Automatic annotation (TrEMBL):
Coiled coil: none annotated. This is Thioredoxin-like protein CITRX, chloroplastic. It comes from Panicum hallii var. hallii. Residues 30-50 are annotated as: Disordered. One of its GO terms (biological process) is cell redox homeostasis. The keyword Translocase does not apply. The keyword Plastid applies. Signal peptide: none annotated. GO terms for cellular component: chloroplast; thylakoid.
Length: 188
């Protein structure tokens, strides 16, 4: 059987030491990456190209960019697929002619379950890309509209069929993603 001195490098063969192993200098270089020529600090590995432009999703709206303020809960990323809409826009979507179901998510930025449902709805928006339309309404911004739509608990989802003769389906609370899928596929 091999001894520890034969298996371990020379610096670790002695008693346990806590001296860190130095990393090669080229891996620790701090320099602006090629994409950051504006003087902002960036860390890049030497020899790795980082000049690829960030991608933006298909439905991204540049006008929704709001500077992030930690703890405010008011940050909306521009690359979310599910677009935040006003009461007027929801009414136009519901009354207008559609070939796909419309799912409206009533949420609040301070609501924990709303964040969980929003993540599921984002994934469903990718899954049902052209087969369903997902939108969201902030109940703090559209309080009167939420009250008129009888939103009492959050999150509340409304499912509108493309067939104007069918009634809307209303759910309240945290729903599993499979149940939302089931409603879209079988009930609308």
């Amino acid at each position: 059987m091999a001894t520890a001195a034969a298996v371990l490098p020379a610096f670790a063969a002695g008693p346990l030491s806590r001296a860190p192993t130095p990393l090669p200098r080229r891996l620790l270089s701090m320099q602006p990456s090629p994409a950051r020529r504006d003087g902002s600090r960036g860390c890049s590995l030497a020899g790795v190209s980082g000049g690829r432009a960030p991608t933006v999703r298909r439905n991204a709206a540049a006008e929704t960019v709001v500077p992030y303020v930690p703890g405010s809960g008011k940050y909306i990323a521009p690359d979310y697929l599910v677009k935040k809409v006003s009461a007027k826009e929801v009414e136009e979507l519901v009354r207008g002619e559609r070939k796909v179901p419309l799912i409206v998510d009533f949420y609040a930025t301070w609501c924990g379950p709303c964040v969980q449902v929003a993540q599921d709805i984002e994934m469903l928006a990718v899954e049902y890309e052209d087969n369903a339309l997902f939108v969201k309404v902030d109940t703090d911004d559209e309080y009167e509209f939420a009250k008129d739509m009888q939103v009492r608990g959050l999150p509340t989802l409304y499912f509108f069929s493309p067939d104007q003769n069918k009634d809307a389906i209303r759910t309240e609370g945290l729903l599993p993603m499979d149940m939302i899928r089931n409603i879209i596929d079988n009930e609308l």
